[in-house]
């Protein structure tokens, strides 16, 4: 865990950034968020059905007066800025049972697509005699906060006996991983939560067709922001440490934390090889591919490797880079970053030291000394790996085939150079 946290908090070259080439350095957690979590617009999309405070059909507010009945529905939320971490210190041990996370972002921006439905009032004292048609408008509400710092403390007590009783095989099935781990937790609660902001930008509400509705809702929002901005900045930390923390404990943790039944975490295998070893075809291949390779195809060892890890490995390393040179992504995601760190140049390994040094008397004369030394080995164009590339491909129940092909790539041959010194001294 410490190594993982250290890796995500380390800066490296962002080879997939907007600028071609290695570009500026960035924290690995930001690069991971862009490559694996966020979409092409660097946003996290959240549907209304996944928002805890949204009601039926995404209803977030409804009010009725003597003139109208207004309902506001949330359609979706786009969160931007999640790849602007400036501080990443998750799960720091600050007590026997308490973990604390300290996170900071340059900014967070929330873009909410909402629908306003305005109907004639249904109150008995309505002033409308002949109600007209309903009015429905869709708009986008944008809210941006800058220099965001969050601190959350989690009380986590894990039953050691239950944890030791979890069978490893159960963790190879994605459907069992979460309930099996959650069942080992004796108690869990957010013991502290705070959010600090440096600035809040004025919100915007755009997209209305009707200028009258635009003036009503836009004017009300602008006035509210002017009145409550300073109060929001002052009271937000307290609000998060009380209302938000209580909501997370009562409506999130209690909802998802539950003991799993014993049969949910038990390990059962439909495969019983005579030699007691694992059939790598069933472990690493999808059911259809496993059957084609001569295995059972019943996922007897779970689907963690066959459905999650191996496809992710293929997608991140083996697949071609369609946006650049068409070579496998292994070059971009592994070879170039590693060689850039080692030598300062992409695709190059440089060893500025002696490879070997030999000094011995000549076989012809003991008074003659022969010296042979090789140093400064340089290997260039290692980032020319081309198809076919095969990683962890079973060729049988017990054998794995791994294949990497270097080139040929036009004008980029593999080069190796070294300084060699040979000296002969004596009579």
Report what the structure shows.
The protein is α+β, with helices and mostly antiparallel strands. Helices cover 28% and strands 37% of the residues. Strands 3, 4, 5, 6, 7, 8, 9, 10 and 11 form a nine-stranded antiparallel β-sheet that branches. Strands 12-13-16 form a three-stranded antiparallel β-sheet. The radius of gyration is 31 Å and the shape is elongated. About 1% of the residues have low confidence.
Summarize the structure.
This protein has 427 residues and is α+β, with helices and mostly antiparallel strands. It is built from nine helices and 16 strands.
Number of strands: 16
Whole-angstrom Rg: 31 Å
Q: What is the average per-residue confidence, as pLDDT, rounded to a whole number?
A: 81
Strand content: 35-45%
Blueprint (SSEs and pairs):
Elements: H1 2-9, E1 11-13, E2 25-27, H2 28-37, E3 43-47, E4 59-64, E5 68-80, E6 85-93, E7 98-120, E8 135-158, H3 160-165, H4 174-182, E9 185-196, E10 199-200, E11 204-206, H5 211-256, H6 280-284, H7 287-292, H8 304-318, H9 330-343, E12 349-361, E13 369-380, E14 385-394, E15 400-406, E16 415-425
Antiparallel strand pairs: 1-2, 3-5, 4-5, 5-7, 6-7, 7-8, 8-9, 8-10, 8-11, 12-13, 13-16, 14-15
Summarize this structure as a short list of keywords or feature phrases.
16 strands; three-stranded antiparallel sheet; 427 residues; 9 helices; elongated; 37% strand; alpha+beta; single chain; nine-stranded antiparallel sheet
């Amino acid at each position: 865990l410490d190594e993982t946290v250290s890796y995500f908090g380390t800066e490296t070259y962002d080879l997939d950034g907007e600028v071609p080439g290695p570009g500026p350095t960035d924290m690995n957690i930001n690069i991971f968020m862009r490559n694996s979590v966020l979409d092409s617009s660097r946003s996290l999309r959240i549907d209304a059905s996944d928002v805890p405070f949204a009601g039926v059909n995404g209803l977030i507010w409804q009010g009725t007066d003597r003139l109208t009945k207004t309902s506001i529905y949330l359609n979706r939320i786009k969160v931007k800025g999640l790849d602007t971490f400036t501080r990443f210190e998750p799960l720091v041990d600050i007590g026997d049972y308490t973990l604390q996370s300290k996170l900071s972002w340059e900014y967070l921006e929330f873009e909410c697509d909402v629908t306003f439905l305005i109907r004639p009032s249904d109150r008995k004292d309505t002033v409308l005699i002949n109600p007209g048609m309903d009015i429905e408008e869709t708009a986008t509400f944008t809210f941006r906060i800058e220099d965001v710092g969050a601190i959350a403390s989690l009380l986590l007590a894990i039953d050691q006996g239950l944890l030791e009783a979890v069978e490893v095989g159960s963790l190879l099935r994605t459907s069992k991983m979460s309930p099996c781990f959650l069942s080992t937790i004796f108690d869990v609660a957010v013991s502290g939560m705070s959010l600090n902001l440096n600035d809040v930008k004025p919100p915007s509400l755009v997209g209305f067709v009707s200028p009258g509705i635009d003036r009503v809702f836009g004017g009300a929002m602008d006035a509210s922001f002017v009145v409550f901005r300073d109060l929001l900045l002052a009271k937000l930390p307290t609000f998060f440490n009380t209302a938000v923390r209580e909501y997370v404990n009562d409506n999130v943790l209690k909802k998802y934390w539950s003991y799993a039944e014993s049969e949910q975490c038990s390990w059962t295998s439909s495969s019983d090889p005579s030699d007691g070893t694992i059939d790598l075809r069933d472990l690493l291949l999808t059911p259809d591919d496993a059957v084609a390779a001569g295995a059972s195809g019943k996922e007897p060892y779970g689907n963690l490797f066959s459905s999650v890890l191996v496809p992710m490995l293929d997608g991140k390393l083996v697949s071609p880079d369609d946006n650049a040179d068409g070579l496998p992504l292994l070059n971009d995601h592994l070879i170039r970053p590693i060689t850039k760190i080692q030598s300062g140049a992409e695709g190059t390994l440089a060893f500025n030291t002696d490879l070997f040094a030999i000094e011995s008397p000549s076989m012809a004369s003991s008074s003659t000394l022969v010296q042979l030394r090789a140093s400064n080995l340089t290997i260039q164009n290692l980032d020319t790996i081309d198809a076919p590339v095969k990683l962890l491909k079973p060729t049988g129940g017990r054998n794995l085939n791994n294949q990497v092909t270097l080139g040929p790539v036009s004008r980029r041959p593999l080069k190796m150079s070294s300084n060699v010194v040979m000296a002969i001294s004596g009579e």
